[in-house]
């Protein structure tokens, strides 16, 4: 096809000549004469631009910086349907947790490349910047606390031609976020053929049933173009790796009614109607220009577990009120002790009781004491109605466990043109002009809870509001080779970028935030667990920035290549930043070359991090408490040490070697990343009464029930270093074609500076939660009608933590899991596969912490440490049928 012969060749040249494709390999590597040039380009096409196969190298051997290539076929053979899990199996320095109870982090899971938070990795789609998710991970498991990265999970593997993972700091090339590296997802671009796939599986425990239907089709777009379309539809049931909470079991034993047999669930959330549609279109306009367009629409509903509300101790709903030592009924915040006493050690706990006749009549209501067996006095509860009083123990006697969920919508569209100038000073220069719009919206829901201040008439389900993230990008890139009498042409690329980012908070339904008539009687305001955003909280926050950059690659000899990147950015919030990158590659022999780079980088605080406020329920030292996240410029935050956010700044260097001999391909790279002024959520700080009064005057809801506040801060510095080893070997063995792949990562993070705002335990989590050692060993085997795939995943020791509580922490053992799949090809079109992830059902580390803070062992109902790097759900098996045409 003419399109394939002309435009594809120009696209290849352009990808090699500019940084737009995320590979930073320029046309200066092309030989002087035309035949040598073609040979060099073809060599690079084999390693970079062609869909990865099991026999192709995973890293680009002639790149001055380390790059992993994971082909679409490899992605589809790992026993999982989530792109995050697929990448975790293929890239050892990439980690992701399942976050069973983590507020919004359960809806869009944050991931880590090289031990840095999710928003320190830049995500590209077809070489263009991907927008962030609207979800901010308020409970991000230490490393990702407060992170706001892109939602990689919306990308279906069936749409992907290959994934390129640039394992090097690249902010000087691409701008903010590329501190840890860059992940570029290349969409399929075939103009014919396609695939339809149906897959079903479940965990060995019999839960988590997952069904997925996906498809891809390539269509001609006139005679000179293509339209490649993909879709994926998926549903996943929830899982539970839980035991009954001891406090709930005790209440049931004491005769309390309606206590759930499993009061709190730790497991994967339920995912419904998870639909993703991706399209990629290209059209040759002339022999020297091409139009392109790609984008997506994705939507899913997620619903997961939350913390149990004990019917004898949950403040603002059930408990927290007492009588003084002389039996005087003391149940309201602010009441003076009539006897002038300040000691309450002999006080008797009571149930929170409200009067339907108003605040002045509350003290006349019967007192409902908590008995020695832990149950409320049922006879006293029964007497409430006749006294025109109430308690939530009447309608919800066994307590309740909210479910937290959301509807996540993600969409994007990129339109552009690229090609070659045919005249003037820029003759033969390559250009790329594009515009991108990306949008992500998270509408939150909380089910089976109450707005206690509305009394017994409170609804049980609420929509607390939504966050949305809108980003717009416009890019101009130009690249041209110049003859300076070096080995080959010196390639000079430059460009301009304009970026706008808008974060919007939309208020929730009235019942989710309103202060009902029973507020002054001590009942909590707003939907318990996640109070709604008030109209005064709603707002739209926008930031704009522009950038100019230049990239130069100079081949001084046939064996020695150097590159320089320089980028200037101007933000309308914090000002300007300039970053550089220098890299080099030297061929020592035909089989061995060495490479290295040194660079500076930055990550701008997101608009959401700078402006968001929220009330969340979390465990602190094992106790369930409400805490408020405030903007860092809020007066209370400023009083406690908050300041306006500044960008993170980084310095990094990488050096390594590439060795190729016969069918063996080996790369070894060392990296060191120093980040100053890292942005994260501060430790939760206890509030004084004067702090609460100030917050209440500022309109923060439910202030008297708040125990703590936190805010985003530039408060600590880290040094992360590590080693990446990648080895591939291909041979004809066992009567077929065999490929062996080994990938190993050692990663170590040290917090080199921090203050009390960060907190010592958070520092420990940053340094120890992730395994220092990760490795995968993969064997792929292909026969005439059968193929097989097996992967061993090694996870080194890590810090086991549960409910973000330091008393639970321990060093968890290293573990190995096995993934395997076997495929039978009935004919050229139809194949059947069976496989398993975690084939031998390796358990996560079991909880075994001792009693702490007076709480019994495992008072929160879990079985395993939630920081397990391979999850807590165990083995998963599946079957798959594929039709290829």
UniProtKB/TrEMBL annotation:
Domain TonB-dependent receptor-like beta-barrel: 418-839
TonB-dependent receptor plug domain mapped to chain residues: 62-182
Keyword annotations of the record: Cell outer membrane, Membrane, Receptor, Signal, TonB box, Transmembrane, Transmembrane beta strand, Transport
Extent of the signal sequence: 1-31
Membrane topology: Multi-pass membrane protein
SUPFAM superfamilies associated with the record: Porins (SSF56935)
One Pfam family named in its UniProt record: TonB_dep_Rec_b-barrel
Locations listed in the record: Cell outer membrane
Matching Gene3D superfamilies: TonB-dependent receptor, beta-barrel domain, TonB-dependent receptor, plug domain
Source organism superkingdom: Bacteria
Presence of the UniProt keyword NADP in the record: no
InterPro entries per the UniProt record, alphabetical: Beta-barrel_TonB, Beta-barrel_TonB_sf, Plug_dom, Plug_dom_sf, TonB-dep_rcpt-like
Family of the protein in this entry: Belongs to the TonB-dependent receptor family.
Protein name per Swiss-Prot or TrEMBL: TonB-dependent receptor
């Amino acid at each position: 096809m003419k399109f394939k012969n002309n435009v594809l060749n120009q696209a290849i040249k352009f990808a090699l000549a500019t940084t737009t494709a995320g590979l930073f390999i320029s046309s200066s590597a092309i030989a002087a004469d035309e035949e040598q040039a073609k040979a060099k380009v073809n060599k690079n096409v084999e390693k970079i631009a062609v869909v990865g196969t099991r026999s192709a190298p995973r890293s680009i051997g002639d790149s001055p910086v380390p790059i992993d290539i994971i082909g679409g076929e490899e992605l589809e053979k790992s026993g999982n349907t989530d792109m995050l899990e697929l990448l975790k199996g293929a890239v050892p320095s990439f980690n992701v947790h399942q976050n069973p109870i983590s507020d919004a982090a359960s809806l869009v899971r944050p991931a880590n490349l090289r031990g840095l938070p999710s928003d320190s990795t830049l995500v590209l789609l077809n070489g263009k910047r991907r927008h962030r998710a609207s979800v901010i991970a308020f409970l991000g498991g230490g490393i990702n606390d407060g992170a706001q990265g892109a939602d990689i999970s919306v990308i279906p593997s069936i749409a992907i031609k290959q994934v390129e993972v640039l394992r090097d700091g690249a902010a000087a090339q691409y701008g903010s976020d590329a501190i840890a590296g860059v992940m570029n997802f290349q969409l399929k671009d075939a103009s014919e053929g396609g695939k339809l796939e149906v897959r079903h599986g479940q965990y060995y425990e019999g839960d988590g049933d997952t069904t997925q239907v996906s498809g891809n089709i390539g269509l001609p777009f006139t005679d000179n173009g293509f339209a490649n379309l993909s879709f994926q539809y998926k549903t996943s049931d929830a899982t539970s790796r839980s035991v009954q909470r001891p406090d709930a079991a005790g209440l049931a034993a004491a005769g309390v009614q309606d206590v759930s047999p499993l009061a709190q669930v730790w497991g994967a959330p339920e995912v419904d109607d998870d639909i993703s549609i991706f399209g990629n279109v290209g059209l040759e306009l002339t022999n020297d220009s091409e139009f392109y367009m790609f984008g997506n629409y994705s939507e899913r509903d997620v619903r997961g577990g939350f913390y149990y509300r004990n019917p004898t101790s949950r403040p603002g709903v059930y408990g927290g009120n007492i009588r003084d030592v002389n039996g005087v009924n003391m149940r309201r915040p602010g009441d003076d002790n009539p006897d002038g006493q300040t000691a309450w050690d002999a006080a008797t706990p009571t149930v929170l009781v409200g009067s339907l006749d108003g605040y002045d009549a509350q003290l006349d209501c019967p007192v409902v004491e908590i008995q020695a067996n832990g149950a409320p006095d049922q006879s006293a509860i029964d007497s409430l109605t006749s006294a025109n009083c109430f308690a939530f123990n009447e309608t919800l006697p066994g307590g309740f466990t909210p479910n937290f969920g959301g509807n996540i919508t993600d969409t994007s569209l990129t339109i552009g043109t690229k090609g070659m100038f045919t005249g003037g000073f820029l003759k033969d220069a390559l250009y790329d002009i594009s515009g991108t719009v990306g949008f992500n919206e998270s509408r939150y829901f909380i089910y089976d809870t109450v707005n206690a201040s509305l009394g017994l008439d409170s609804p049980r389900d609420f929509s607390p509001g939504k966050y949305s993230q809108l980003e717009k990008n416009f890019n101009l890139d130009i690249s041209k080779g110049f003859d300076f009498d070096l080995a080959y042409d010196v390639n000079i690329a430059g460009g301009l970028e304009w970026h706008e980012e808008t974060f919007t908070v939309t208020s929730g339904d009235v019942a989710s935030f309103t202060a009902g008539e029973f507020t002054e009687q001590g009942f909590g305001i707003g939907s318990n667990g996640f109070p709604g955003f008030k109209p005064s909280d709603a707002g739209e926050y926008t930031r704009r920035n522009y950038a100019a950059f230049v990239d130069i690659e100079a081949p001084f000899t046939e064996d020695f290549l150097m590159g320089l990147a320089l980028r200037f950015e101007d933000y309308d919030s914090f000002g300007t930043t300039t970053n550089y990158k220098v890299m080099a590659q030297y061929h020592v022999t035909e089989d061995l070359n060495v490479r290295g780079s040194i660079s500076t980088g930055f990550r701008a605080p997101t608009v959401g991090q700078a402006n968001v406020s929220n009330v969340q329920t979390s465990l602190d030292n094992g106790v369930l408490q409400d805490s408020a996240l405030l903007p860092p410029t809020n007066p209370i935050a400023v009083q406690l040490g908050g300041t306006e956010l500044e960008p993170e700044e980084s310095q990094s260097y990488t050096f390594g070697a590439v060795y190729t001999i016969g069918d063996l391909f080996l790369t070894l790279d060392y990296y060191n990343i120093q980040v100053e002024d890292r942005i994260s959520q501060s430790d939760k700080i206890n509030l004084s009464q004067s702090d609460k009064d100030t917050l209440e005057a500022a309109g923060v809801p439910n202030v008297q029930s708040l125990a703590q506040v936190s805010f985003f801060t530039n408060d600590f510095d880290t040094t992360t270093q590590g080693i990446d080893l990648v080895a591939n070997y291909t041979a004809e063995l066992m009567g077929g074609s065999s490929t062996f792949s080994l990938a190993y990562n050692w990663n170590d993070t040290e917090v080199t500076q921090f203050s009390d705002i960060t907190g010592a335990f958070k520092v420990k989590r940053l340094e120890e939660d992730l395994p220092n050692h990760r490795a995968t060993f993969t064997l792929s085997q292909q026969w005439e009608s059968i193929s097989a795939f097996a992967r061993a995943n090694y996870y080194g020791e890590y810090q086991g933590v549960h409910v973000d509580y330091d008393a639970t922490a321990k060093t968890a053992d290293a573990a190995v899991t096995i993934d395997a799949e076997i495929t039978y090809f009935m004919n050229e079109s139809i194949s059947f596969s069976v496989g398993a992830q975690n084939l031998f059902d390796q358990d996560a580390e079991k909880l075994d912490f001792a009693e702490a803070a007076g709480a019994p062992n495992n008072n929160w109902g879990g079985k395993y440490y939630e920081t397990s790097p391979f999850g807590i759900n165990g083995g998963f098996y599946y079957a798959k049928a594929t039709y290829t045409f």
